[in-house]
Each structure stands twice: as structure tokens, then as C-alpha cells.
Specification:
Layout (H helix, E strand, L loop, with lengths): L3 E6 L2 E5 L2 H21 L5 H32 L4 E7 L2 E6 L6 H29 L3 H20 L7 H14 L6
Parallel strand pairs: 2-3
Antiparallel strand pairs: 1-2, 3-4
Helix pairs in contact: 1-2, 2-3, 2-4, 3-4, 3-5
């Protein structure tokens, strides 16, 4: 997938597609106009917009972390990772080859949702600690969305991570990659 090259991390091209700007704007606008005013009515409009901007960037960083989870585990299993691209519907880690065994395929597929669950738990916990503040609302929203992302990604439908996990399970069970 094409996109603006931001740089390299661990020999992986990191790219961002123009559609991410649309997502960032819509997310920021929605949070500043609807979510944060209802969750933190005592904050000013400028505070709502500022928190929304930071929250949108944090959410996109969480998507990137999800893809880095896949990538780091892929590399540790001897699978080349060519690029990570953030785009309209999330992110894509482009592997240079398929995993050579079902265990590696399962670990690679599960790594992204595991990162998202970790971010979700951290966001929710920090949001509870922050209490009834705008920061608390932002952290609770981030934690909730990270958990939702993980759950959605675990649906057993290809090309979602859950579909890849299911595929690895079938591969391990049957020993036949083609059947999986």
C-alpha cells in the first residue's frame, strides 16, 4: 500500500496514507463536539479540542503499536516485514513471506490484539485513577476503543487477526496449510 514514508523502525518502512488525515479530523471533531462535552461539561471548548487532538493522535499511535506488535513477533520468528502503513481502516503490516509453521502464524496474528488489549487495560486503569476529569474521560475513551479494536480484530473472519488465528489453528490441527 502506498503512502508517505515517515521513516524506518527495525528496518521496516513506516508509511501513512492520506486517508489518516480524514480519520484524525473526524475523530478529533467527534470527540471535541460530542463526547468530551458530555463527559466533562466543566471543561472549556478549547480544552475539549485540545484533549480531542491528543486523544486522536494517541488512538492512531495505538493502531501503529498494534501493527508493530505483529511486526516484532514476525521478525522474531524469522519473517521479514517490509512495511507498516496506517490508512483509513487501521493499519497493515506487509510481510515479506508467510510464516513457515502454524505456531509462528498464530503468534504473529495474536500479537496485535495482545498489544491492543494491553493498551486498553492501561488506558482504562489510568482513566479510573485520573477520575472525573477531562484527562480521565480521554483515557477511558482510549482504553475502551483499544479494547473494542482488539475484540473486533479477534472475530474469526479473514483477513482480521481472528481469522488468521483460526487459520493457524486449522493448519496445526490438519497439518495442511492449503486446507487452512
Amino acid at each position: 500500500m502506498s503512502g508517505l514514508l515517515l521513516g524506518h523502525i527495525r528496518r521496516i518502512e513506516v508509511r501513512i496514507h492520506w486517508s489518516v488525515a480524514v480519520v484524525a479530523w473526524l475523530l478529533t471533531w467527534s470527540l471535541a463536539s460530542n463526547v468530551f462535552p458530555s463527559l466533562s461539561p466543566g471543561s472549556t471548548e478549547v480544552e475539549h479540542w485540545t484533549a480531542a487532538g491528543f486523544t486522536a493522535v494517541g488512538f492512531l499511535a495505538g493502531l501503529f503499536a498494534h501493527e508493530m506488535g505483529h511486526s516484532i513477533v514476525a521478525q522474531s520468528n524469522g519473517v521479514e516485514v517490509r512495511s507498516i502503513t496506517l490508512w483509513l481502516f487501521g493499519g497493515i503490516a506487509q510481510l515479506g513471506a508467510e510464516p513457515t509453521d502454524p505456531g509462528a502464524a498464530l503468534r504473529i496474528a495474536a500479537a496485535g490484539p495482545t498489544v491492543s488489549i494491553g493498551l486498553g487495560v492501561a488506558g482504562l486503569a489510568l482513566g479510573v485513577v485520573a477520575g472525573d476529569t477531562l484527562s480521565g474521560a480521554a483515557l477511558l475513551w482510549f482504553g475502551s476503543m483499544s479494547m473494542l479494536l482488539a475484540v473486533f480484530n479477534l472475530l474469526p473472519a479473514f483477513p482480521l487477526d481472528g481469522g488468521r488465528i483460526y487459520q493457524a489453528w486449522i493448519w496445526r490441527r490438519t497439518g495442511d496449510r492449503g486446507a487452512a
